[in-house]
C-alpha cells in the first residue's frame, strides 16, 4: 500500500499540467532565448573582451596594485559583513518564528527596508550621519576616526544592503517547521544553546547556507551604496565594481573587462554553490513526504 502511495505521488508530480506540448516547448524556447541574450551572451562577452589583447595584458590588468587593492577590499567587506549578517539573520529569524512579542511585524518590516530603499540613498544616509558635515562628523574628526571615505564606511554600507538575505531565507523555513521540536527538547531538559545546536541548526542548515551564499554575492557585487561612501580613492577605497567603472571611464577597456571577469568568476562560483544548496534543499523537501507515507 505504501509503495502504491509513493508511485501515485510521483505520478501526480509528473502530471502537474495537461497543457499541449507546443505550449511547453514555446515557454522553454522563450526562456532559453532570454537566458542566452540577457545572461549568457553578456557573460561570454566579458571574457572575450578581457582576453582580446592576450593573456599577458589580462594578467597585467588583474595583478596591478590598484586591482589587487580592489580585490582585497571587496573580500574584506564580504568577510566582515557576511558573518555579522549571519548572526543577525539567525537571531532575527529565531525571535520572529519561535516567540510572540510586540513589534514582531514592525521588525519584519525593518528587515525588508534595504529591499525598498535605493542603495544610493543608503549611502547618502551614512554620509549624512558620519560625514564631515554630518551629525557625528565633528566628534569623529576630533577623535581622528574616519568612517566615510574609508574602509569602515564601505563595510557599514555593505552590511546595510545585505542584512535581509539570511533572515529572509530562514524566516519562512523556520515558520514551516514550527516549534514542536524545540518545545520537545526543552521539555526533555535541553537549554537554549543545546536546542539550537542539536535541533534547530540541523533543520535549517541548507537554508542558512543558501542565505549566506546570496548575502555574499550581493556583498561582492554592491555598487550604489559603496560608491557614495567610498570617495573613489584609487588603491584605497575602491572595490572591484568601482575599479571597473574607473577603468571603463578612462577608456581602458581591456583592463576594465579583465577586472570584471574576476567578479564574473566569483559570481559563477557563487552560482555553483547556490545550485548545489538548492539541490540539497529540494532533495530533503521531496524526501519528507515519502518518509511520512512509509510511516
Please describe the structure with a list of short key phrases separated by commas or semicolons.
mainly alpha; disordered C terminus; 295 residues; 15 helices
Molecular structure report:
The protein has helices at 2-14, 21-50, 55-63, 65-98, 104-111, 113-116, 119-130, 137-142, 151-162, 164-177, 180-187, 192-221, 224-230, 240-249, 253-294. By secondary structure, the chain is mainly α. The longest helix has 42 residues, at 253-294. The termini are close together. The model is unreliable at 290-295 (pLDDT under 50).
State the order of secondary-structure elements, H for helix, E for strand.
HHHHHHHHHHHHHHH
Structural class: mainly alpha
The biggest beta sheet is recorded as:
none
Low-confidence stretches: 290-295
What coarse outline follows from CA principal-axis ratios? globular
Amino acid at each position: 500500500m505504501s509503495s502504491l502511495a509513493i508511485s501515485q505521488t510521483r505520478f501526480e508530480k509528473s502530471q502537474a499540467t495537461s497543457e499541449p506540448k507546443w505550449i511547453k516547448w514555446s515557454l522553454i524556447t522563450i526562456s532559453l532565448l532570454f537566458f542566452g541574450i540577457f545572461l549568457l551572451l553578456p557573460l561570454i562577452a566579458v571574457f572575450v573582451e578581457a582576453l582580446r589583447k592576450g593573456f599577458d595584458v589580462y594578467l597585467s590588468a588583474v595583478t596591478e596594485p590598484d586591482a589587487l587593492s580592489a580585490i582585497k577590499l571587496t573580500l574584506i567587506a564580504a568577510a566582515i559583513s557576511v558573518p555579522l549578517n549571519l548572526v543577525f539573520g539567525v537571531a532575527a529569524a529565531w525571535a520572529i518564528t519561535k516567540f510572540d512579542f510586540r513589534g514582531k511585524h514592525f521588525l519584519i518590516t525593518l528587515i525588508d527596508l534595504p529591499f525598498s530603499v535605493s542603495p544610493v540613498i543608503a549611502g547618502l544616509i551614512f554620509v549624512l550621519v558620519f560625514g564631515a558635515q554630518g551629525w557625528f562628523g565633528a566628534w569623529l574628526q576630533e577623535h581622528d576616526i574616519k568612517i566615510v571615505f574609508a574602509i569602515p564606511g564601505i563595510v557599514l554600507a555593505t552590511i546595510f544592503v545585505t542584512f535581509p538575505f539570511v533572515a529572509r531565507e530562514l524566516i519562512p523555513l523556520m515558520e514551516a517547521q514550527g516549534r514542536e521540536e524545540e518545545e520537545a527538547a526543552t521539555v526533555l531538559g535541553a537549554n537554549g544553546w543545546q536546542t539550537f545546536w542539536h535541533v534547530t541548526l540541523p533543520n535549517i542548515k541548507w537554508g542558512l547556507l543558501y542565505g549566506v551564499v546570496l548575502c555574499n554575492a550581493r556583498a561582492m557585487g554592491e555598487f550604489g551604496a559603496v560608491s557614495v561612501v567610498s570617495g573613489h580613492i584609487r588603491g584605497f577605497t575602491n572595490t572591484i565594481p568601482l575599479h571597473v567603472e574607473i577603468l571603463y571611464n578612462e577608456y581602458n577597456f581591456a583592463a576594465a573587462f579583465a577586472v570584471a571577469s574576476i567578479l564574473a568568476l566569483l559570481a559563477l562560483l557563487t552560482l555553483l554553490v547556490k545550485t548545489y544548496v538548492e539541490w540539497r534543499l529540494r532533495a530533503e523537501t521531496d524526501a519528507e513526504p515519502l518518509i511520512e507515507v512509509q510511516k
